[in-house]
Amino acid sequence: MTVQPIRLFGDPVLRTPADPVADFDKELRKLVKDLTETMQDEGGAGLAAPQLGVGLRVFAFDVDDVVGHIVNPVLSFPDDEEQDGPEGCLSIPGVYIDTKRRQHVVASGFNQHGDPIQLVGTGLMARCVQHETDHLDGVLFIDRLDAAARKDAMKQIRSAEWYDAGKPPTIKESPHGRGIFGLGR
Asked: Is 132 in the active site?
C-alpha cells in the first residue's frame, strides 16, 4: 500500500499554485496510485497532489462508486445553478461548513497516460471537482466562505487537536523525489 501523510492547514504547499504536469511517466502513475490509495484510506471523496506535498496539477476522486483521476484539469460550467451544502477537507480534519459551489461542472484534462479525458459532474461530483481544482490553485474551501462562516471555520481550526498555532507546520519530504515534481515549495 502507498498511503502517504496528508499535509494539514498551515503547510505552505497548500497555498501554492501547482505546476502543470509535463511528463506522463512512471512517476506520475505512482503519484496517481498514491493519491487514490491515500484518499480511500482516509475515506475522502477527493485528494489533490499538493495535499501530499507534490506541486503538480493532478487529483484523484472517489464519488458515488466512480473512482478516477484527472491531470491538468480545466473547468467549465454549463449553467449558473448553484448548490449549498456541507464541505470538508482532509487537510482541515473535522471541519465541515456549508459552502456554495456550482451544481454542474465539466472538467477537461488528461489521464495518467496523457490521453485526453472529460469528466462531467453534478451534485457531489461537481463539488469534489471544484474543491480539488481549488487545491491545485492554492485555494482552500474556507476561502469560499462568507465572513461569518470563515470566522466559524477558523474558530474550529484553532480549537482542533491537530492545530498548533505556536508551532510552524511540519514539512515532510515527499516520497516522490524532487525530479519533475518541483518539490521544496
From this structure: yes
- Whether residue 89 is annotated as binding a ligand: the answer is yes
pLDDT, tens digit, for every residue of 42-85? 999 999 999 999 999 999 999 999 999 999 999 999 999 999 99
- Structural domain span for residue 65: 12-159
Residue 164 lies inside a defined structural domain of this protein: no
Q: Residue 185 falls within a domain, yes or no?
A: no
Distance CA(20)–CA(127), nearest Å, equals 22
Interval 101-130: pLDDT, tens:
999 999 999 999 999 999 999 999 999 999
> Does residue 75 belong to any structural domain of this protein?
yes
The count of structural domains within the chain is 1
42 domain-assigned: yes
Q: Which of 27, 87, 132, 173 is catalytic?
A: 132
Residue with cell 465539466: 106
